[in-house]
Protein backbone atom coordinates (compact mmCIF):
# COMPACT_ATOMS: atom_id res chain seq x y z
CA UNK A 1 0.00 0.00 0.00
CA UNK A 2 2.79 2.40 0.90
CA UNK A 3 4.67 1.72 -2.32
CA UNK A 4 1.50 2.20 -4.39
CA UNK A 5 0.97 5.53 -2.64
CA UNK A 6 4.50 6.66 -3.51
CA UNK A 7 4.05 5.69 -7.17
CA UNK A 8 0.69 7.46 -7.38
CA UNK A 9 1.84 10.55 -5.50
CA UNK A 10 -0.80 10.25 -2.76
CA UNK A 11 -0.86 9.25 0.90
CA UNK A 12 -1.30 5.62 1.96
CA UNK A 13 -4.83 6.04 3.44
CA UNK A 14 -6.00 7.34 0.06
CA UNK A 15 -4.87 4.12 -1.63
CA UNK A 16 -6.62 2.01 1.00
CA UNK A 17 -9.82 4.04 0.65
CA UNK A 18 -9.82 3.79 -3.15
CA UNK A 19 -9.28 0.03 -2.97
CA UNK A 20 -12.17 -0.34 -0.55
CA UNK A 21 -14.38 1.77 -2.82
CA UNK A 22 -13.45 -0.45 -5.78
CA UNK A 23 -14.31 -3.59 -3.80
CA UNK A 24 -17.68 -2.12 -2.85
CA UNK A 25 -18.42 -1.09 -6.44
CA UNK A 26 -17.69 -4.51 -7.97
CA UNK A 27 -19.08 -6.44 -5.00
CA UNK A 28 -16.06 -8.66 -4.37
CA UNK A 29 -13.10 -8.70 -1.99
CA UNK A 30 -9.86 -8.30 -3.96
CA UNK A 31 -7.28 -8.58 -1.18
CA UNK A 32 -6.94 -9.94 2.31
CA UNK A 33 -5.14 -7.77 4.83
CA UNK A 34 -2.77 -9.20 7.42
CA UNK A 35 0.21 -8.30 9.58
CA UNK A 36 2.57 -8.95 6.66
CA UNK A 37 0.64 -6.76 4.22
CA UNK A 38 -1.99 -7.54 1.61
CA UNK A 39 -2.49 -10.64 -0.53
CA UNK A 40 -4.70 -11.08 -3.58
CA UNK A 41 -7.78 -13.26 -3.24
CA UNK A 42 -8.68 -15.76 -5.99
CA UNK A 43 -11.03 -13.16 -7.49
CA UNK A 44 -8.31 -10.54 -7.13
CA UNK A 45 -5.85 -12.75 -9.04
CA UNK A 46 -8.33 -13.16 -11.92
CA UNK A 47 -9.12 -9.46 -12.03
CA UNK A 48 -5.41 -8.59 -11.85
CA UNK A 49 -4.88 -10.54 -15.09
CA UNK A 50 -7.61 -8.49 -16.76
CA UNK A 51 -6.16 -5.26 -15.35
CA UNK A 52 -2.79 -6.03 -16.93
CA UNK A 53 -4.53 -6.41 -20.30
CA UNK A 54 -6.32 -3.10 -19.73
CA UNK A 55 -3.02 -1.41 -18.86
CA UNK A 56 -1.31 -2.80 -21.96
CA UNK A 57 -4.20 -1.58 -24.14
CA UNK A 58 -4.08 1.86 -22.51
CA UNK A 59 -0.36 2.06 -23.21
CA UNK A 60 -0.96 1.07 -26.84
CA UNK A 61 -3.54 3.86 -27.16
CA UNK A 62 -0.98 6.31 -25.82
CA UNK A 63 1.63 5.08 -28.28
CA UNK A 64 -0.73 5.37 -31.25
CA UNK A 65 -1.66 8.89 -30.19
CA UNK A 66 2.00 9.72 -29.59
CA UNK A 67 2.92 8.75 -33.14
CA UNK A 68 1.31 12.00 -34.26
CA UNK A 69 4.07 13.72 -32.30
CA UNK A 70 7.38 12.79 -33.89
CA UNK A 71 9.18 15.76 -32.32
CA UNK A 72 12.51 15.40 -30.57
CA UNK A 73 11.12 17.21 -27.53
CA UNK A 74 9.32 15.43 -24.70
CA UNK A 75 9.59 12.81 -22.01
CA UNK A 76 11.27 9.40 -22.37
CA UNK A 77 11.11 7.05 -19.37
CA UNK A 78 13.84 4.44 -18.95
CA UNK A 79 13.67 1.80 -16.21
CA UNK A 80 16.88 -0.03 -15.23
CA UNK A 81 18.38 -1.98 -12.30
CA UNK A 82 19.66 0.45 -9.68
CA UNK A 83 23.32 -0.58 -9.96
CA UNK A 84 23.70 -0.21 -13.73
CA UNK A 85 21.63 2.99 -13.62
CA UNK A 86 23.72 4.58 -10.88
CA UNK A 87 27.22 3.47 -11.81
CA UNK A 88 27.09 3.31 -15.58
CA UNK A 89 24.12 4.99 -17.26
CA UNK A 90 24.29 8.12 -15.06
CA UNK A 91 28.01 8.45 -15.84
CA UNK A 92 27.20 8.60 -19.57
CA UNK A 93 24.52 11.31 -19.25
CA UNK A 94 26.60 14.45 -19.99
CA UNK A 95 27.00 13.70 -23.70
CA UNK A 96 23.34 12.76 -24.12
CA UNK A 97 22.01 15.81 -22.26
CA UNK A 98 24.25 18.14 -24.25
CA UNK A 99 23.20 16.62 -27.60
CA UNK A 100 19.49 16.40 -26.74
CA UNK A 101 18.49 19.42 -24.63
CA UNK A 102 14.78 19.07 -25.47
CA UNK A 103 14.44 15.46 -24.28
CA UNK A 104 13.29 15.03 -20.70
CA UNK A 105 14.88 11.76 -19.65
CA UNK A 106 13.29 9.99 -16.67
CA UNK A 107 15.60 7.31 -15.28
CA UNK A 108 13.66 5.04 -12.94
CA UNK A 109 15.52 2.40 -10.94
CA UNK A 110 14.44 -1.09 -9.94
CA UNK A 111 15.56 -2.36 -6.54
CA UNK A 112 16.03 -6.03 -5.67
CA UNK A 113 12.70 -7.80 -5.33
CA UNK A 114 10.71 -5.36 -7.45
CA UNK A 115 8.88 -6.11 -10.68
CA UNK A 116 11.42 -5.57 -13.51
CA UNK A 117 8.84 -4.57 -16.18
CA UNK A 118 7.54 -1.04 -15.70
CA UNK A 119 4.25 -0.62 -17.64
CA UNK A 120 4.88 3.13 -17.89
CA UNK A 121 8.43 2.84 -19.27
CA UNK A 122 9.30 3.59 -22.89
CA UNK A 123 12.47 1.49 -22.53
CA UNK A 124 13.15 -1.22 -19.94
CA UNK A 125 16.52 -2.75 -19.04
CA UNK A 126 16.51 -5.94 -16.97
CA UNK A 127 18.53 -9.07 -16.30
CA UNK A 128 16.01 -11.61 -17.60
CA UNK A 129 14.45 -12.21 -20.99
CA UNK A 130 10.96 -12.73 -19.55
CA UNK A 131 8.72 -10.06 -21.04
CA UNK A 132 5.36 -9.18 -22.46
CA UNK A 133 4.88 -10.59 -25.94
CA UNK A 134 4.27 -7.14 -27.44
CA UNK A 135 7.78 -5.90 -26.58
CA UNK A 136 10.93 -6.16 -28.70
CA UNK A 137 13.84 -7.86 -26.83
CA UNK A 138 17.47 -7.00 -27.44
CA UNK A 139 20.51 -8.49 -25.72
CA UNK A 140 22.37 -5.34 -24.73
CA UNK A 141 25.40 -6.52 -22.76
CA UNK A 142 26.85 -9.20 -20.50
CA UNK A 143 27.75 -8.27 -16.94
CA UNK A 144 30.41 -10.47 -15.35
CA UNK A 145 29.95 -10.71 -11.58
CA UNK A 146 33.14 -11.51 -9.63
CA UNK A 147 34.20 -11.21 -5.97
CA UNK A 148 35.46 -7.77 -4.94
CA UNK A 149 36.83 -6.54 -1.65
CA UNK A 150 39.24 -3.84 -0.46
CA UNK A 151 42.83 -3.69 0.72
CA UNK A 152 41.55 -2.60 4.15
CA UNK A 153 39.47 -5.79 4.42
CA UNK A 154 42.40 -8.03 3.46
CA UNK A 155 44.72 -6.25 5.92
CA UNK A 156 42.16 -6.76 8.71
CA UNK A 157 40.76 -10.23 8.03
CA UNK A 158 43.36 -11.81 5.77
CA UNK A 159 43.15 -13.30 2.31
CA UNK A 160 40.91 -16.33 1.78
CA UNK A 161 42.74 -19.45 0.58
CA UNK A 162 40.04 -20.32 -1.95
CA UNK A 163 36.32 -20.35 -2.48
CA UNK A 164 35.62 -22.73 0.43
CA UNK A 165 37.55 -20.45 2.79
CA UNK A 166 35.93 -17.34 1.29
CA UNK A 167 32.49 -18.66 2.26
CA UNK A 168 33.63 -18.40 5.90
CA UNK A 169 34.54 -14.71 5.53
CA UNK A 170 32.41 -11.60 6.06
CA UNK A 171 30.22 -11.61 2.96
CA UNK A 172 27.71 -9.17 1.55
CA UNK A 173 24.75 -9.99 -0.66
CA UNK A 174 21.91 -8.29 -2.46
CA UNK A 175 18.49 -9.39 -1.27
CA UNK A 176 17.37 -12.07 -3.72
CA UNK A 177 15.47 -10.82 -6.70
CA UNK A 178 12.08 -12.36 -7.41
CA UNK A 179 12.02 -15.79 -9.07
CA UNK A 180 12.40 -14.61 -12.66
CA UNK A 181 15.47 -12.49 -11.78
CA UNK A 182 17.18 -15.20 -9.73
CA UNK A 183 16.94 -17.48 -12.74
CA UNK A 184 19.41 -15.20 -14.54
CA UNK A 185 22.17 -16.76 -12.39
CA UNK A 186 23.59 -20.12 -13.54
CA UNK A 187 22.50 -23.11 -11.47
CA UNK A 188 25.96 -23.74 -10.00
CA UNK A 189 26.22 -20.11 -8.89
CA UNK A 190 22.77 -20.30 -7.30
CA UNK A 191 23.89 -23.41 -5.43
CA UNK A 192 27.01 -21.68 -4.12
CA UNK A 193 24.94 -18.62 -3.16
CA UNK A 194 22.73 -20.82 -0.99
CA UNK A 195 25.83 -21.83 0.96
CA UNK A 196 26.59 -18.22 1.83
CA UNK A 197 25.98 -16.84 5.32
CA UNK A 198 26.25 -13.11 4.63
CA UNK A 199 27.18 -10.61 7.31
CA UNK A 200 25.33 -7.92 5.34
CA UNK A 201 22.26 -8.10 3.12
CA UNK A 202 20.77 -5.11 1.31
CA UNK A 203 18.40 -4.30 -1.53
CA UNK A 204 20.64 -1.47 -2.74
CA UNK A 205 23.62 -1.91 -5.07
CA UNK A 206 25.09 1.38 -3.87
CA UNK A 207 24.99 0.25 -0.23
CA UNK A 208 26.68 -3.03 -1.18
CA UNK A 209 29.41 -1.25 -3.13
CA UNK A 210 30.15 1.25 -0.36
CA UNK A 211 30.33 -1.61 2.14
CA UNK A 212 32.92 -3.31 -0.09
CA UNK A 213 34.96 -0.11 -0.39
CA UNK A 214 34.79 0.54 3.36
CA UNK A 215 36.61 -2.71 4.12
CA UNK A 216 33.59 -4.42 5.67
CA UNK A 217 32.86 -7.30 3.30
CA UNK A 218 33.61 -9.41 0.26
CA UNK A 219 30.78 -9.37 -2.30
CA UNK A 220 29.98 -10.13 -5.92
CA UNK A 221 29.81 -7.14 -8.25
CA UNK A 222 29.99 -6.61 -12.03
CA UNK A 223 33.47 -6.01 -13.42
CA UNK A 224 32.66 -2.59 -14.93
CA UNK A 225 32.74 -1.30 -11.34
CA UNK A 226 36.55 -1.75 -11.39
CA UNK A 227 36.78 0.87 -14.11
CA UNK A 228 34.88 3.31 -11.90
CA UNK A 229 36.55 2.51 -8.57
CA UNK A 230 40.26 1.61 -8.87
CA UNK A 231 40.54 1.35 -5.05
CA UNK A 232 38.74 -2.01 -5.17
CA UNK A 233 40.52 -5.36 -5.03
CA UNK A 234 39.49 -8.11 -7.46
CA UNK A 235 39.56 -11.38 -5.54
CA UNK A 236 40.31 -14.03 -8.16
CA UNK A 237 38.65 -17.15 -6.75
CA UNK A 238 38.00 -18.63 -10.20
CA UNK A 239 34.37 -17.56 -9.84
CA UNK A 240 32.82 -15.57 -12.70
CA UNK A 241 29.06 -15.29 -13.11
CA UNK A 242 27.92 -13.90 -16.48
CA UNK A 243 24.48 -12.25 -16.48
CA UNK A 244 22.89 -10.85 -19.62
CA UNK A 245 21.37 -7.39 -19.65
CA UNK A 246 18.30 -7.12 -21.89
CA UNK A 247 16.60 -4.07 -23.37
CA UNK A 248 12.86 -4.06 -24.15
CA UNK A 249 10.70 -1.53 -25.96
CA UNK A 250 7.49 -1.47 -27.98
CA UNK A 251 8.18 -1.69 -31.75
CA UNK A 252 6.10 1.44 -32.40
CA UNK A 253 8.46 3.43 -30.18
CA UNK A 254 11.17 3.51 -32.83
CA UNK A 255 8.87 5.75 -34.88
CA UNK A 256 9.05 8.41 -32.15
CA UNK A 257 12.22 10.44 -32.69
CA UNK A 258 13.05 11.13 -29.05
CA UNK A 259 12.64 7.46 -28.06
CA UNK A 260 14.71 6.33 -31.03
CA UNK A 261 17.50 8.69 -29.93
CA UNK A 262 17.46 7.17 -26.44
CA UNK A 263 17.58 3.64 -27.88
CA UNK A 264 20.55 4.58 -30.08
CA UNK A 265 22.29 6.20 -27.11
CA UNK A 266 21.84 3.08 -24.97
CA UNK A 267 23.21 0.95 -27.81
CA UNK A 268 26.25 3.21 -27.93
CA UNK A 269 27.05 3.27 -24.20
CA UNK A 270 26.92 -0.54 -24.08
CA UNK A 271 28.99 -0.99 -27.24
CA UNK A 272 31.37 -3.88 -26.49
CA UNK A 273 33.96 -2.57 -28.96
CA UNK A 274 34.33 0.54 -26.78
CA UNK A 275 33.67 -1.10 -23.44
CA UNK A 276 35.25 -4.58 -23.26
CA UNK A 277 33.82 -5.31 -19.80
CA UNK A 278 30.39 -5.80 -21.44
CA UNK A 279 31.58 -8.51 -23.87
CA UNK A 280 30.23 -12.04 -23.71
CA UNK A 281 33.71 -13.36 -22.95
CA UNK A 282 35.15 -12.49 -19.55
CA UNK A 283 37.83 -9.78 -19.57
CA UNK A 284 39.82 -9.62 -16.29
CA UNK A 285 39.51 -6.23 -14.53
CA UNK A 286 43.29 -5.75 -14.61
CA UNK A 287 43.10 -5.41 -18.41
CA UNK A 288 40.98 -2.25 -18.30
CA UNK A 289 41.47 -0.82 -14.81
CA UNK A 290 44.07 -0.20 -12.12
CA UNK A 291 42.46 -2.43 -9.50
CA UNK A 292 44.68 -4.80 -7.57
CA UNK A 293 44.18 -8.51 -8.27
CA UNK A 294 44.61 -11.05 -5.48
CA UNK A 295 44.59 -14.67 -6.67
CA UNK A 296 43.34 -17.41 -4.34
CA UNK A 297 42.66 -20.64 -6.21
CA UNK A 298 42.33 -23.07 -3.31
CA UNK A 299 39.63 -25.61 -2.55
CA UNK A 300 36.24 -25.16 -4.20
CA UNK A 301 32.92 -26.24 -2.66
CA UNK A 302 30.96 -29.06 -4.20
CA UNK A 303 27.38 -27.87 -3.88
CA UNK A 304 24.48 -30.17 -4.62
CA UNK A 305 22.66 -28.65 -7.59
CA UNK A 306 18.92 -29.33 -7.60
CA UNK A 307 17.55 -29.38 -11.12
From TrEMBL:
Lineage start: Bacteria, Pseudomonadati, Pseudomonadota, Alphaproteobacteria, Maricaulales
UniProt cross-references to SUPFAM superfamilies, sorted A to Z: Periplasmic binding protein-like II, Winged helix' DNA-binding domain
Stated name of the protein: LysR family transcriptional regulator
GO molecular function annotations of the record: DNA-binding transcription factor activity; sequence-specific DNA binding
Domain HTH lysR-type: start-end pairs: 1-41
PROSITE patterns, per the entry: HTH_LYSR (PS50931)
Annotated InterPro entries: LysR-type_TF_proteobact-type (IPR058163), LysR_HTH_N (IPR000847), LysR_subst-bd (IPR005119), WH-like_DNA-bd_sf (IPR036388), WH_DNA-bd_sf (IPR036390)
Domain of life of the source: Bacteria
One Pfam family this sequence matches: HTH_1
Keywords: DNA-binding, Transcription, Transcription regulation
